[in-house]
Amino acid sequence: MNLPNIITLSRIPSMFLIVGLMYCDFPGAPSLAFWLFILCAVGDWFDGYLARKQGLVSTFGKLMDALTDKIMVVGLVVAFVEKNEIPIPLALIAICREFLITGMRMVAAAKGVIVPADRGGKRKTMTQLIALGFLLGAPMAAHDWSRFVAFDLTLFVEIVHRIGYFGFVLGTILAVWSGTRYVIQHRTVVFSDADTPGSGHAS
C-alpha cells in the first residue's frame, strides 16, 4: 500500500465524517464539513499527481480513485436527500448510473479488460462535486459566517444554494449522457458471453 493509494482510500472515512458533521449543530460544524470536503477534493488531484510523479500508477489505483469518488458523491447525495435539498428522482438517477457503470467495469475487469474513466465521466464527477461543494457552502455561510458579519446573508446563502442545486441538475444530465456513451462504447466487451482476448487487457 503506497501513499497515493492511502490518500485515495482516506476519502471513504472522510465521507462519513463530512456527513456526520452535516448533522451536528455545534458552531463551526458546517465549516469543518466544507473544508474537509475541499481537502478531499485536493487529495483527489494530489494522489494522481503523486502516483504519476513517483511511477506508482496501478490498476488498483485507477479503479479505486474512480470508486472513492463515487462513494463520496453517493454518500453526500443521500445526506442531502434526507435534508430535502436534492430531489429523490435526481438522486436515484445519479446513484443508479454509478451502480450501472461500476457493475459494467467489474464485468469488463473480470474479462481482463480495464476500462478507465473517460472525459465525459470525469466532467460529470467534477460537476457533481462542485455542486455538492456549493450545497455544503450554503450552511457554512448561513450558520458560521453570519456570526461574524453585521449584514444579512440570506440572499447570498440562497444564491449559493441555488448554484449548488442547479449544478447538481447539470451533473445529473451529464451522468445520463456519459453513462449512455459508456454503455454504447463498451457494450461488446461487457455483454459478450465470451472472454475478450487482445490488447488492452490486464496482464
Kindly describe this structure.
The protein is mainly α. It has helices at residues 3-9, 11-22, 29-53, 59-82, 88-110, 119-143, 154-190. The chain is globular, with a radius of gyration of 19 Å.
Report a brief summary of the structure.
The chain has 203 residues and is mainly α. Helix content is 75%, strand content 0%. The chain has helices at residues 3-9, 11-22, 29-53, 59-82, 88-110, 119-143, 154-190.
Question: What keywords describe this structure?
Answer:
Four Helix Bundle (Hemerythrin (Met), subunit A); mainly alpha; 203 residues
* Straight-line distance between termini: 20 Å
CATH architecture assignment: Up-down Bundle
CATH topology: Four Helix Bundle (Hemerythrin (Met), subunit A)
What is the level 1 CATH name?
A: Mainly Alpha
Rounded to the nearest angstrom, the radius of gyration is: 19 Å
Number of helices: 7
The count of DSSP E runs of length 2 or more, i.e. the number of strands, is: 0
Shape: globular
* Structure class: mainly alpha
Question: What is the residue-averaged pLDDT?
Answer: 87
Q: How much helix, percentage-wise, in residues?
A: over 70%
The major sheet is characterized as:
none
Give the SSE map.
Layout: H1 3-9, H2 11-22, H3 29-53, H4 59-82, H5 88-110, H6 119-143, H7 154-190
